[in-house]
Write a structure and sequence with these properties.
The structure is a single chain. The chain has 101 residues and is an alpha+beta fold. It has one domain (2-94). Helix content is 15%, strand content 31%. The chain has one helix and five strands, in the order E-E-H-E-E-E. It has one helix spanning 34-48, and strands spanning 2-10, 22-25, 66-68, 71-77, 87-94. A hairpin with a 2-residue loop joins strand 3 and strand 4 (71-77). The longest helix is centred in the middle third of the chain and has 15 residues, at 34-48. The protein is globular and about 50 Å long. The chain starts with a strand and ends in a 7-residue tail after the last strand.
Length: 101
């Protein structure tokens, strides 16, 4: 299982979120807009359990990192039909095992 970090990567005119805000999943779920969290939830579950999504977005601002030093990223847009344009960056980080004493 991986730890999940969320970051508001892009967007404007949103009354709830600003670019650069960071959250821990699931600890900070109550701080996220329900629309945004719901649109990301399936991707989060796939990444949390070490799955992969097939697209890569090569040569775009959304190009993914896949398994570089145990990190995987994914991007998802808020379904809000207004011009807010919020994009959430999901980062899955491989947990390191603690050494037994």
């Amino acid at each position: 299982m991986r730890d999940i970090e969320l970051e508001i990567f892009e967007g404007n005119h949103c009354t709830k979120h600003k670019v650069g805000e960071k959250y821990k999943y699931p600890k900070d779920n109550g701080k996220l807009c329900p629309w945004l969290l719901y649109s990301a939830s399936h991707m989060i579950q796939v990444l949390k359990y070490d799955g992969r999504l097939g697209w890569s977005y090569k040569n775009t601002p959304y190009e993914k990192i896949i398994n570089k030093d145990g990190v995987t990223t994914e991007f998802v847009r808020c379904p809000d039909p207004t011009s807010s344009g919020i994009v959430l960056k999901i980062t899955a980080i491989k947990r390191t095992r603690k050494k037994a004493r």
